[in-house]
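note to self: the first set is below, dont mix up w the second
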Amino acid sequence: MPNRSKFQWDSTLYYLTFIVTLILLLEIISVFFTFQNNIYVEVLGTISSTIEATLPIPQIIENFRRKSTKNLSNTLVGCWILGDSMKTIYFYVSAAPIQLLISGMAQILLDVFVIFQICIYRKLDPAREPLASNNVN
């Protein structure tokens, strides 16, 4: 049977080498461009907030593929929605750049979609504990 690990690196050392190299490369590029161009800062902020906004998508896909949210912690999802809501309110109140506000709203939408999946899949699995339970593993 093939290894179903989501970790695709041959070793932890290769992974850490890649991460350190990526961070150093981005740092060098950032130092160079930040002093010369505000567009670079805006593009970097947009890319990073877009990546952060899409973090729940792999979980949504996995839930859909399995037709279950069995090992998904209610506490985790609650913290997602609470943190993303507070962050988005802060972006709105502080008049942050529009891309941050849009990414915050996208995160909340994806969080709500995960909550929707929890409700739907719990109805399909009567053996599953009620939504109000705290199933921290």
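second set (the one i keep forgetting abt)
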Amino acid sequence: MTLRRQVTVVMPRYNPVASFVLYRHILLILYLHWHVHETYSILTHIQHNYRPNIAGINRLFCPGQTWRDNCSFSRSLFCIMFVLTTLFWLAILLLNSGDIHPNPGPMSSTSSPVANADSTANTERSEHSSSSDSVAFALDLAHNISLIHYNVQSILPKLDIITSELHEFDILAFTETWLNGRVTTSELAIPSFSEPERKDRADSHGGVILYVKDNIHFIRRHDLEIIAIENIWIELLLNKKKVLLGVFYRAPNSDATYNNLIEDSIHLAVDTGIKDIIITGDFNYNILLPPTSQKVDNISLQYNLHQIINDYTHFTETSSSIIDLMFVSDKNTIVASGVADPFLNQEQRYHCPIFALFKFKKPKIKHLLGRSGYTSKEIMMS
């Protein structure tokens, strides 16, 4: 799973100019060597006008009457031209590199995806981009809690590749799982993760599922879930800190009633009084379009949330959009966030994974009493 990035090739565009400069220098040296008398006359005129008195300089930079003197002169002139040419091209490359600044600092990625479609990660509040061959390698997943969401369009046949690509993340949230009651939860197990929390749709489409690493303690919050919509809420216990995490799937043809139910579920989560809330999923609200963008802005404003995904997440043959979203109640908890390249086979339309790395530290103790439920004095107060 690679981060999308743009590679700018600098040198090839300068090859014709470089060749011209090189040939010009060679011809100039040959001309000076073959036309000694004309060159000597010019330099003698300069010498008489400016009168350099250092014999070493005269001997080194003026042509002589013998072939040995002329060879020495040509060699010296070639070295000077080589140094000047090298300095010239170094200056050109520095000026055109585009990423060298006298006062470097974090780059802002607040620009729209139209202006910067290849931006992939937003880090340390200023949300500067990261470029690496893998999200897992680009982020420090060893100490901080990490989350990734992916619209997988049928999870069961893709479970092996999902496990291979995403096993380093702490929390995996998937939408459009396309599961039904005939698929047992044990068939969906991923090593080193607790038994998944799932919510299926009756027609074997849609659906959501959550995986949490088995050393992270959580409980399912059914009281925040509304039966008529596809969502899951869990409450995480992270080193004396409670965090609510919700995953949603909203179908493209959902009506206003469904939209209101999503807001009702978010309202229930906010009413718990838990300060840190994270919401992710495929909402099918394209924030590049004014009507749906206004809808997302209204949700963010009403519940004091921040939507942190600003790059394209969904592509078809004729369009691209941002419909996979992630909301947080506190932007200061974000270390990095962004969009990664897809790695699942989705032929007609495909989604990209969205991810976030948080400042929440991983628990230092192993799982004591099952996959969920706070016991033993809230797991010894973490």
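remember for set 2: Residues 11-96 form one domain.
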